[in-house]
Amino acid sequence: MASVVSEEHVQFCFKVLIAHLKNDALPKPAFPNDSYPLFVTWHKKTRNNERQLRGCIGNFSPMHLHKGLKKYALVSALQDRRFSPINLSEIPLLTCAVSLLTNFEKAYDYLDWEVGTHGIWIEFVNTDGEKETATYLPEVMEEQGWSKQEAIDSLLRKGGYYGPVTETYCLESIVLTRYQSQKLEQPYKG
C-alpha cells in the first residue's frame, strides 16, 4: 500500500498546537485536502527516556485533512480527559503521530483480525443493555504484547463493560470492524 501520511501532516499538527498555545494565527496547510478517518496521538519523553501517552483522539468518519488534522491536533492535546492539557514547555519533549485509517472491513467474529496488522473497533451491549463502542489503533495490541483475547477484554473494559467476559458473550454481543492505519510519528522539527 502506498504511503498516504506524510511529514507535512505531522509537522502541521505541531504548528497548529504551538500557534494555539501562543495565541497566534493558525497555519495554512499546503498538502492535499484528501478525506480519511484519522487519529492524532501525542507522546512525551520521560526522564527515563520512555514514551508517555499525552493524548489520543480521532474520528472514524472521513474528514478533509485540513480540517481534521487541525481539529484533532488540538482536541487530542488539550481535551483528552485522561490527561492534563499539553503546555508550550512540553513541545521539545513531544512526538506527534498522525494515523490515517484505511481498509475498513466487518469481521466474521470477534477474533477475525491480526495483531500488528489491524486496528479493531467493537460495538457491544453493556451490562445496562446499552450499545457502546471502543477502539484500539493497530499498534496498541503489539505495543502491549496482548493476544487477541486480551485485547478484546481490555477493549470491553475501556468501553465501559464490567460484566463477565465469556466466549458466549463475545460471540453474541460483539460486532467487530477491523481496519488498517498509515501512521507516522515524529518530534517537532521547527
Helices and strands, with pairings:
Blueprint: H1 7-21, E1 35-45, E2 51-64, H2 65-78, E3 94-106, E4 119-125, E5 131-136, H3 138-144, H4 148-158, H5 167-173, E6 175-187
Antiparallel strand pairs: 1-2, 1-3, 3-6, 4-5, 4-6
Characterise this structure.
There is one protein chain. This protein has 190 residues and is of the alpha+beta class. It has helices spanning 7-21, 65-78, 138-144, 148-158, 167-173, and strands spanning 35-45, 51-64, 94-106, 119-125, 131-136, 175-187. Strands 2-1-3-6-4-5 form a 6-stranded antiparallel sheet. The radius of gyration is 17 Å and the shape is globular. The two termini are 29 Å apart. The relative contact order is 0.20.
In short:
With 190 residues, the protein is an alpha+beta fold. The chain has helices spanning 7-21, 65-78, 138-144, 148-158, 167-173; strands at residues 35-45, 51-64, 94-106, 119-125, 131-136, 175-187.
Descriptors:
alpha+beta; Dna Ligase, domain 1; 34% strand; AMMECR1_dom_sf; AMMECR1_N; AMMECR1_domain; AMME syndrome candidate 1 protein
Q: Give the oligomeric state of the chains in this entry, treating copies of one chain as homo and distinct chains as hetero.
A: single chain
How many strands appear in the DSSP assignment? 6
Query: Helices and strands: which structural class?
Result: alpha+beta
Cα gyration radius (Å): 17 Å
Fraction of residues in helices? 25-40%
Count of separate structural domains = 2
Which strand-content bin applies to the residues? 25-35%
What name is given to the CATH topology of the largest domain?
Glycoprotein, Type 4 Pilin
Shape: globular
* Major sheet attributes: 6 strands, antiparallel
**What strand line-up does the widest sheet have?**
2-1-3-6-4-5
What gap, in angstroms, lies between the N and C termini? 29 Å
What are the segments in which pLDDT stays under 50 over at least 5 consecutive residues?
none
- The count of helical stretches stands at 5
| Overall pLDDT confidence | 93
- CATH homology superfamily of the largest domain: Hypothetical protein ph0010, domain 1
Domain AMMECR1: 1-190
Organism: Mucor ambiguus
Protein name: AMME syndrome candidate 1 protein
InterPro entries: AMMECR1, AMMECR1_dom_sf, AMMECR1_domain, AMMECR1_N
